[in-house]
């Protein structure tokens, strides 16, 4: 596929020392972003380019550019890599774009002559053992390939040796990666001050710098819930994942899908990502026994055999090349026209790396077919639909291009908005009917539950008042007038369309979006010789980012929003904030403009995920075990029955409120369950 390249005048002018006219526009922009940052005093920088974007081309030209800008007689660059293939690629690219430079390799048996070199391409594993031969002043710039590995101790020790491990470093440190994210939660800010240039893989495809792709998803019906909570870092435990995926039924689905797509599109060179060696051996046997020429590469494959297998794959002697964790980085095989994703992951960076293997342009292909073998388990798996911005990963894709997926997304979003409006309207009407229907029960309900201090209930307990009262017929009482204020608060907060939760006495909360929530506090004061005064204070809380130390005591930052004696006025302010966010007009109150804060949202009526149900059960039973003498009408089995019948909204509300106050909301839900059980017993005795 040939792509016409147009270089804007402003980019040409901005290049300064970037003299290579064969560079793509974005490659020249990336180099210019690096030199601008260095000129401004920011010397520990990152460049994010997707697989196939030409990272080695960019840093090879950056080396030449920085050398020309330097006033030094001798300018020497150190290029850090972590694999042999990356070292050889880097050397070849630098020799091509910097023909006057002497490029040496520091790796295994190859030892660099420091004094005679202009560029040293070093394996991190080898260099860490040979640092004594390098004076810290020998190096004028450090390039780090696949820089998301840079927080490892070996990398940091090397940077420290060259006095380049802090922001006041005298030499530039430039990291290149397709994914400046890590699956273990470690922060790359320890090494880099700023990502000065970023290009998304989807933008590259859209702009025809990478191969157009067709995406297909296949639901293999695997049950990943069995391995939930057994992950290493943030991803699955590979041994347990393999036991779920490496079964004859799923392997046959993978084979059948491949054969069908091969027949339809003449696929010639497929790269398959498996889980472990056992998985690859099983798939290899299935493919070979059905006449498909395949071979696999693992960490146990010798270097010579690996190179031979790759050459056979490039020449077409092998149709399907299988691997587990080998070809996610540093592999240039542009003839790949199909990627088989048989290794489910929770890591977005890993998924991007795997897909990226097939995105390079090549004359032999018009499309790269990406086939994602997914499942519908709610355990955080990142699949192709998620990566392409579709919230529902169960939405099937069958050979859809980016433009077609965008149309599907828009159609789904439009349909969801219509459905949401219908559900909210119907739910609001039903809520009004229920409120009228049970108006006579309301006073009786207040008197009955007050005996058990049940006014401390949160909305995590029941979806509506009617659900609680439907099996009760409490006697009337004449003391309701004393509860007028409580009634008003109940009607304003718990009868609103927002899922408010009560997390402590005289305090309520509402989750607005990920990482942000509001809290409403009732403050009561009693001045001398005067009646008690009350006011309601609304505060916005934002969660401190995850890169902060985990042991830090403060979880949120907060600021006051409004204070008033009028509760309705305060609640209206919350509605105004939510409306503002939904319109996308401001992000002053939260990090995300996409919010869905309605008690009647469709998802709230769904069944809780297994993880949510387990969390709720654990919260209730731990508190029940500590205070079982307080609950005379329920047992541990009653808690199990309650969790089985609860909704996703109720589960989310309890988990949210318990995250703010671990005792109060859980204790009061147990009181409500105990109270409800007593009501059932009383009704039975009266029958």
Automatic annotation (TrEMBL):
Q: List GO terms (cellular component aspect).
A: mitochondrial matrix
Q: Which GO terms describe its molecular function?
A: ATP binding; double-stranded DNA helicase activity; forked DNA-dependent helicase activity; hydrolase activity; Y-form DNA binding
- This protein's UniProt keywords: ATP-binding, Coiled coil, Helicase, Hydrolase, Nucleotide-binding
Give coiled-coil spans as residue ranges: 402-436
Helicase C-terminal domain span: 249-431
What range(s) does the Helicase ATP-binding domain occupy?
Answer: 36-198
**SUPFAM superfamilies, sorted:** P-loop containing nucleoside triphosphate hydrolases
Which GO biological process annotations does it have? Answer: mitochondrial DNA metabolic process; mitochondrial translational elongation
User: What Pfam families does the annotation carry?
Assistant: Helicase_C, ResIII
What PANTHER family does this protein's entry cite? ATP-DEPENDENT HELICASE IRC3-RELATED, TYPE I RESTRICTION ENZYME ECOKI R PROTEIN
Q: What is this protein called?
A: Double-stranded DNA-dependent ATPase
């Amino acid at each position: 596929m040939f792509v016409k390249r147009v270089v804007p005048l402003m980019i040409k002018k901005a290049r300064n020392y970037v003299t290579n006219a064969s560079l793509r526009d974005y490659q020249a922009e990336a180099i210019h972003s690096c030199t601008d940052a260095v000129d401004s005093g920011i010397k520990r920088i990152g460049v994010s380019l997707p697989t196939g974007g030409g990272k080695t081309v960019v840093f090879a030209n950056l080396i030449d550019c920085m050398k020309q800008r330097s006033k030094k007689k001798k300018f020497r660059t150190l290029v850090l890599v972590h694999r042999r293939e990356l070292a050889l690629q880097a050397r070849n690219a630098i020799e091509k774009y910097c023909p006057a430079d002497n490029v040496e390799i520091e790796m295994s048996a190859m030892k660099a002559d420091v004094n005679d070199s202009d560029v040293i391409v070093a394996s991190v594993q080898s260099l860490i053992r040979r640092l004594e031969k390098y004076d810290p002043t020998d190096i004028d710039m450090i390039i780090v390939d696949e820089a998301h590995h840079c927080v490892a101790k070996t990398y940091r020790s090397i940077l420290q040796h060259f006095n380049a491990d802090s922001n006041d470093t005298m030499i530039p440190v430039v990291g290149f990666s397709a994914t400046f994210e890590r699956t273990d939660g470690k922060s790359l800010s320890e090494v880099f001050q700023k990502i000065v240039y970023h290009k998304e893989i989807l933008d590259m495809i859209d702009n025809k710098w990478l191969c157009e792709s067709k995406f297909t998803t296949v639901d293999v019906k695997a049950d990943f819930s069995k391995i939930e909570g057994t992950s290493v870092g943030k991803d699955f435990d590979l041994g347990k994942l393999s036991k779920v995926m490496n079964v004859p039924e799923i392997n046959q689905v993978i084979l059948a899908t491949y054969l069908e797509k091969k027949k339809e599109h003449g696929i010639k060179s497929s790269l398959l990502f498996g889980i472990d060696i056992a998985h690859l051996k099983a798939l290899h046997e299935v493919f070979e026994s059905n006449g498909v020429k395949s071979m696999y590469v693992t960490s146990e494959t010798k270097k010579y055999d690996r190179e031979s297998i790759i050459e056979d794959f490039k020449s077409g002697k092998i149709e399907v090349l299988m691997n587990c964790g080998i070809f996610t980085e540093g592999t240039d095989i542009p003839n790949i026209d199909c990627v088989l994703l048989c290794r489910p992951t929770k890591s977005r960076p890993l998924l991007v790396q795997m897909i990226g293997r097939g995105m390079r342009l090549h004359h032999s292909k018009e499309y790269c077919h990406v086939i994602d073998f997914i499942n519908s388990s709610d355990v955080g798996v990142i699949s192709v639909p998620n990566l392409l911005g579709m919230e529902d990963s169960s939405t099937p894709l069958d050979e859809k291009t980016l433009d077609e997926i965008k149309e599907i997304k828009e159609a789904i979003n439009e349909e969801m908005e219509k459905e949401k409006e219908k559900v909210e309207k119907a739910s609001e009407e039903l809520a009004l009917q229920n409120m009228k229907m049970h108006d006579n029960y309301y006073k009786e309900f207040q008197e009955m539950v007050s005996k058990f201090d049940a006014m401390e209930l949160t909305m995590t307990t029941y979806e509506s008042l009617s659900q609680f009262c439907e099996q009760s017929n409490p006697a009337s009482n004449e003391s309701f007038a004393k509860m007028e204020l409580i009634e008003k608060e109940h009607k304003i907060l718990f009868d609103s369309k927002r899922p408010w939760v009560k997390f402590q006495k005289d305090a309520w909360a509402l989750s607005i979006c990920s990482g942000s929530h509001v809290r409403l506090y009732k403050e009561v004061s009693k001045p001398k010789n005067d009646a008690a005064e009350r006011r309601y204070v609304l505060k916005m809380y934002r969660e401190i980012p995850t890169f902060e130390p985990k042991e830090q005591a403060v979880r949120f930052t907060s600021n006051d929003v409004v204070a008033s004696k009028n509760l309705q006025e305060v609640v209206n302010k919350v509605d105004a904030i939510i409306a503002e966010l939904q319109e996308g007009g401001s992000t002053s109150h939260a990090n995300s403009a996409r919010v869905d804060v309605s008690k009647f949202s469709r998802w709230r009526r769904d069944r809780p995920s297994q993880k949510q149900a387990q969390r709720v059960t654990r919260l209730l039973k731990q508190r029940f075990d500590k205070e079982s003498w307080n609950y005379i009408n329920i047992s541990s089995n009653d808690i199990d029955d309650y969790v089985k019948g609860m909704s996703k909204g109720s589960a989310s509300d309890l988990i949210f409120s318990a995250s703010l106050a671990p005792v109060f909301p859980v204790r009061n839900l147990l009181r409500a369950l105990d109270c409800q059980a007593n009501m059932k017993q009383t009704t039975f005795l009266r029958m």
